[in-house]
Give the backbone structure.
Amino acid sequence: MWRAILRRVLHALLVLLTVSLLTFGLIMAAPGGPSILLDPDLSPADRARLRQELGLDAPAHIQYLKWAGNAVRGDLGRSLVQKRRVAEMIGERVPATAVLAGAGLLLTLLAGIPLGVAAATRPRSLLDHAATIASGVGVAIPGFWFGIMLIILFAVWLHLLPSAGMYTPGGPQTLADLLRHLVMPTLVLATFSLPQVTLFARASVLETLRQDYVRTARAKGLDERRVLFRHGLRNALIPVLTVIGLLVPRLVGGAVITETVFAWPGMGRLSADAAFGRDYPLIMGITMVVSVVVIVSNLLTDIAYTVVDPRIRLE
Amino acid sequence: MQTERDDEREEKSQPFGVTRRGFLRAAAAAGAATSCAALWPGSAVAQQPRQGGALRMAIIADPVLNPILTMGIQSTTICKVLYSGLCRPDPVTLEPRPDLAKSWQVSRDGLTWTFMLRDNVTWHDGKPFTGEDVKWTLEERATGKGAWRGPRVVKTVEVVEPHVVRFHLTQPFAPLAVLMGFTQYIGPKHLLEGKDQAEFAEFNKKNPVGTGPFKMKEFVTGQHVTLQANPDYFLGRPYLDTFVFKVVPDVNVQVAQIKTGELDFALIEPQNIAAVKGMPDLKLDVVDYVNHYYIAFQIKNPLFADPRVRLAMIHAVDRQTIVEKVLLGYGTVATGTIPPALGWAYNSTLKPLPYDPQKALALLAEVGWKPGPGGVLMKDGKPFKFTLSVDKGNPAREQTATIAQQFYKRLGMDVTLETMEWAAFASKRWLARDYEAMHMWWITSPDPDQLDYYGTGGANNHPNYSNPEIDKVLLEAQQITDRDRRRQLYHRYQELEMSDPPVATLYYPKEIRVTNAKLVIPPVGYRDALTNSEAWHYTT
């Protein structure tokens, strides 16, 4: 058991190292430099001095080692643009990201799994066809367009929901205010993940219900409901766990479009701003944080496997 | 509300006198003259100003609220309201008016400017504002902590008395007062002197202290910056109670928010006008601002070295069509690099060079470019071939570049269009001056001095343009303070441009804003309107 944990920790460190090297390499290779150097009012002398102050004129591997040396001690550096600590800037965005990602995940699971299961148990029914088609549409819809359409419908025409943001500025930050602001971004975020979970659950349940042991259970005289819930579902949901495990990092770090459209102050938007501004420390910091989320989420998925399926052991 | 006594105090301290009442009168006059009335029948004529209310405006990302370090439009936008400069642009004519300085004098040799500062100004934390703050701020900027806007002509700043500062210049410099009113905010020495970057960050985010009409109330990162009225503001309490800058990164959502009433002010592109037309709670405001949009040709490239080639490039493009189709009419075809928004400096006797492809071909023939097989322009066996670069993501610019490309192709040129993401474009093409042709623009301070952009060796002269006669004209005009002489010189400059264009100017687009129908703001570009934010108000 301890060996398994040690192996996982080493594995995780290796992943983080590789990700950091790759990200840094990409940043260095990308054309254009930090946006703060792109100010036309900076004289060439100023620009050179600023580059030197920020350590940007050192060779790439020196810059990387400097960053890594600080990072392992918990110092993720300062944003080139805002001059604030990267850790602090990311930390500020965590609540908003957690709320949106959590809501998206909740909607995805609460709606996706039952829908997928229901569709599988009623193959070729109206529900099955509707779920499959709706899922196809959901995956294909561009989130940007869908978000704007929702805003036009619910905010501009119907005046039912606020168009963007997380809270009403200057207003009391009540739960009700938050929930009203959360509705549309959650729908848009879930548009991509919900269909995936639905289709996956559906396929997995269909596959499971074809297994021999299910046939045996039916032959033994168990009603369909018990067959499904007692015997089939646990096995069917194992692959679905994988999909969920892969969704979490996307919800946390990849909700850029949703956050941009709905002015949601999350990490996705921060990472987009950092990328456009070539804000190296911030880009590295966010990438590391998201990598850690991926690693933890994979670990939790693996643990969940062992809980759901006694045949699987944590290795 | 202003009382008689307030008016008196203001008149005495402002020899160039723009009081709030004066501005309102001027705004009413100007308001009637703008295109407002034509677009929106029955739009609000000057009514009684109302004390109070909140103004919500959009920014696209978090700002840095430090007066020395400002970068990015969202930072300068908010800093114009939080901080003050020595001067400010007049809310109608853009001439420099008193702000922290109540008057100023220039020595005969033009090397010394003496600014008399107001003695009744306090920082938002209650400490008094003095000349020490001015000296410290300018020296911080000069040592390069932040960008110095404009040519570095200030050698030293001397605090003669607590409220008198003297600038010693390296050369006479006429635009100094204008520059002091254009993103040259003064910062609090007592709070920032000797502090390092880390503590600057605290100031920037938690508690920026300025002398402006609004002070910090709340900064929720990623969401909004809310400022509240400064009751001790030296020109009197502003009309508005709060100024809220909401972070709304997407322009379509900004338009949606102005429609739902979640924003009171939004800048829009021509294609968004249809979405807001006819809404009774909104009004459309169209103003000129100081800019020129152009296609630059790299003059170090032998292809474009001859002015006749550049003239041909101007004659080749039907710029009126671009203004109509791309800007939907919200712009003017350009004469040269000085726009009508610069008022006195603009040479209104000049007309834009006409669209004349035959003339273009004739000019090119003079230089040796003749149509070869297939109509392709050839010289010494080589075709006229170049790449036109434009930044990605702005539909108007991309369309303009595409249309220009088509017109050049009609002449027989082989033109490849290159779009590039902004940061890459800015560093690889613009700042590195590594381009053949590039669609760019300048938005400048309200002074016609362009020595930096088009003078030989100018720091921002990316086309590497050089015309000794223009150099002479621009240098003299930069140094002489006499307005009439400057006007003569700039008019001459524009004439000279007509035969040796530094860039192929395209148009001067108008600034289009949609606002709450009851909002009254100065009828100038918003960058300059915000410097007069204490006068913004709602009508009853």
Notes: The two ends of chain B are 14 Å apart (CA to CA). Chain B touches chain A through 54 residues (CB under 8 Å).
